[in-house]
Amino acid sequence: MDRSGARRDASRGINGLAGPGHPPPVPSRPGSSNLLLSRCRFPGQGAPLTCAVSGGADSLALLVLAVEAGCRVTAVHVDHGLRPASASEADVVASAAARFGAGFRSERVQVAPGPNLEARARAARRAILPRGTATGHTADDQAETMLLNLVRGAGRDGLAGMRPGTTKPLLALRRSETHGLCAELGLEPVVDPSNLDQGFRRNRVRHELLPLLESIAQRDVVPVLTRQADLMRDEAELLDRLASSLDGHDGPALASAPPALARRAVRRLVEAVPSYGRPRPDDRSPHHGEESHPPSAAAVERILGVARNQAAACELPGGVRVRRSGGRLYVERG
pTM value? Predict the structure, then answer.
């Protein structure tokens, strides 16, 4: 079957008819997939899109909706070999990809035993996925990320959360909606037991903190938090534009600039150093390491102390050193 035919079969599956060789799915509400699609941010029709699909409800919904949006989808499943059932989970993804007319590729990565296993597994997954890969993060993930960043002290950028776009096309959808779509289509998502492990910070936010906040506020707080993320993102982008004209190497300019702009210029200077911001070894959050952490507030203040000529140099985590010479700042790796 050519791709256009496969895509027609996929569309019939979404709207309540099964593709060849598949049992009829649970009937969906009329136009439910279109309602979800109207809130997604997929690239234009016909655009190639790689989707990271673990087999969970969010990633299966990502696969289905990306096909329905008209993208040329390749579903990639990455097996870390960390659970006995991980190999069979690839079969779940392969079956869904075939049913909805998407391409499929399975990748296996080796993660050596040792500390911070989850973060190293995510790093291995990111390394094997192509740039621009879409993930199935939802509004609920966004709210959890904001709260995790709040307790990390990540500042305005952390409270801005994940940036919506073609790599995070489902950020306006709720987790209940991705599960509902899978149920309507008769898809049986993979259940990852680590999502119930209270040793992970994100799971405690999901199962303890968010229900507590909702009890206190007597409302669903996820929309409140995601709206705050949008506001913070707009303000962060404005500060970035204002700080872009400030030379982070110019000590006197940094010393005389408004502190909010000087801090952003300094962060941009340090983040340009290769491999800066690697995951902290004490963070066991399941989503930790999806983005590199910026320099801490304390590190930024030490750098500004060098810019103000209060110190000749300072040391940062990860073997990074910032020194001043002739009024200029230089960032070096040890």
Answer: 0.79
Does residue 226 sit within a domain? no
245-257: average pLDDT: 96
CATH number at residue 110: 3.40.50.620
- Positive or negative, the Cα torsion across 257, 259, 264, 268? positive
pLDDT confidence tier of residue 115, bands split at 50, 70 and 90? low
Percentage of the chain modeled with pLDDT above 70: 80
Choose between 149 and 15: higher pLDDT: 149
Domain match, 312 and 253 both: yes
Burial class (CB in 10 A: 0-12, 13-18, 19+), 266: buried
Q: Is residue 251 located within the same domain as residue 102?
A: no
Q: What is the pLDDT of residues 222-234, one digit of tens each?
A: 999 999 999 999 9
Asked, for residue 234, whether it belongs to a domain, the answer is no
Cβ-defined contacts of 273-282 (< 8 Å, 24+):
273/320, 273/331, 273/333, 274/333, 275/318, 276/318, 276/320, 277/318, 278/318, 279/116, 279/119, 279/123, 281/115, 281/116, 281/119
Rounded CA-CA distance 56/14 in Å is 17
Give the domain extent around 70.
Answer: 3-138+173-196
Q: Specify if 260 maps to a domain.
A: yes
Q: Please tell me whether residues 115 and 249 are part of one structural domain.
A: no
Confidence of residue 33 (pLDDT cuts 50, 70, 90): confident
